[in-house]
Every structure is written in C-alpha cells, then in structure tokens.
TrEMBL record:
Superkingdom: Bacteria
Name of the featured protein: DUF5706 domain-containing protein
Pfam families documented for this protein: PycTM
Protein location: Cell membrane
Keywords associated with the record: Antiviral defense, Cell membrane, Membrane, Nucleotide-binding, Transmembrane, Transmembrane helix
Domain Pycsar effector protein: 20-155
Segments traversing the membrane: 40-57, 63-86, 136-158
Organism annotation: Streptomyces ortus
C-alpha cells in the first residue's frame, strides 16, 4: 500500500518533519486496520465453527466428511492466526516503544526520547504492521480453503 499523497520528497527540515509525522500516522492506521479486519474475521470463523457443531453425529459420505474435517482444521488454523494479529505484543520494540517506556524511570524516558525518534518508531510500527498483515493474509487464505472444502462437501453429499 502506498504512502499517503501528502508525503512529498523534500530535504527541508519542515518537509521532513511533516513526512515523518505523516508516516507515523499512516503506519499506525494500517495496524488499526489489521485489528479491525481480524476482529470481523474472528467473528465469522467463530460463527461458522459454531454452526458446524450442529453437524456432529450427522451421517455424511466419507468424501464429504473428509472435506468438512479439512475445512474445520483450516478454520481453526485461521482463528489462531487471527488471534495472533490481535494479541498484544509487549516485548521488544526498542527504546522508542511504549513497552520499553513502562520499564523506564522518568529520566530514562527523557534520555531515550532526547533526539528525534520518529524514524525508529516508523521502523518498529512498520515491522508490526507487516507481521500482522502477513498473519491476516494467511488467515484469509485458510478461510477461502475452508469455504472451498465446504462447497466440495456439499457437492459430495448431493452426488
């Protein structure tokens, strides 16, 4: 995803400040988007898995049962990935992140933030966003696999 159009390359201090602020806001927004998407997908997978509980004990052809089992496993794996997206990560991040600040004294915080830490913060936030989007991408792929397996299970039950 491209950076917002308001970021214009320029070497002036004011432009650089503006670009760093915009990049911080942009990456923070991307992280918020992953959390929102993951929450919706978690609700979807939970509803589908709850609905599948009604199939327990129902006679299904072997092919359909294998497809449903594969779909359930894919949905469970997707749920784990989605939970990893929304799970807070409180380790690491360097001296420019709030988990580190929680362990510092006021003086250490002032020292850590003495210079311009926006570039380091952008790097940390970008790594978090890339990790979250990666988990989200895999979860969506698994949900699509589950839906395809459900379709095959229905076709197998009708044939």
């Amino acid at each position: 995803m491209a950076l917002p159009a308001l970021i214009v390359p320029d070497h002036s201090s004011t432009r650089t400040d503006h670009n760093l602020d915009a990049a911080c806001a942009h990456v923070s927004g991307e992280i918020a988007r992953t959390d929102g998407k993951s929450s919706l997908l978690l609700a979807f997978t939970g509803a589908v898995l709850a609905g599948l509980a009604s199939l327990v004990g129902q006679p299904l052809p072997v092919f359909s049962l294998a497809c449903v089992t594969t779909a359930v496993l894919a949905l469970m794996a997707a749920s784990v990935l989605l939970l990893m997206v929304v799970r807070p990560r409180l380790r690491g991040g360097g001296r420019e992140s709030f988990p580190a600040w929680a362990r510092m004294s006021e003086a250490e915080i002032r020292e850590a933030l003495h210079g311009d830490v926006r570039a380091a913060r952008i790097q940390i936030l970008s790594r978090i966003a890339v990790r979250k989007f990666g988990h989200l991408q895999w979860a969506v792929d698994l949900i699509l696999l589950a839906l395809a397996m459900f379709l095959l299970a229905v076709i197998g039950a009708l044939v």
